[in-house]
Design goal:
Length: 168
Amino acid sequence: MPARRPDPRAARGQGSHSMYVDFSFKRSPKYRVVSIVGTVPWTEATLRAGFRRLVRWTTAHHLRTGKWIIVSRSAKYWEACLELKRPARGEGKIHVTVLPATTVATITFDPEQVSPRVIYHGMQDWLRWRRKAGEIKGVGYTREIYRGSPWTDRKAWSRATIEYAVRK
């Protein structure tokens, strides 16, 4: 008999401070984004400066934005992206692109409760075993998705989503 999964609602009891996290596969929607590409190893300062520049640009062009997305394709190549609610045209180093709909391995968690380092390590191990089991063929880039600014909005920070693009 297979082991039963713990019920995530059971950890929400009164006075309980446990947190339940679980990895899953899902189909991520496409996102129309305005982005800045970084080609140096990313630091929080360079990433924050990129987002600050995007916010100034979208404000100047009177564009509504949605999710904040950090795309990491390698150790030295990253993109700071803001989801756009309507079409626009980029200019200079600011590009308007579409992140395609794709199958992803995902997890949503609170970085104040569980260290992101633990989440990334666990996700990589989980994906390695899914690949060995033949459930997936490969793993691509990563995305961190927030519902607002992770630096100023506590609610957005507490619901960080990490996605790895996978090939099935």
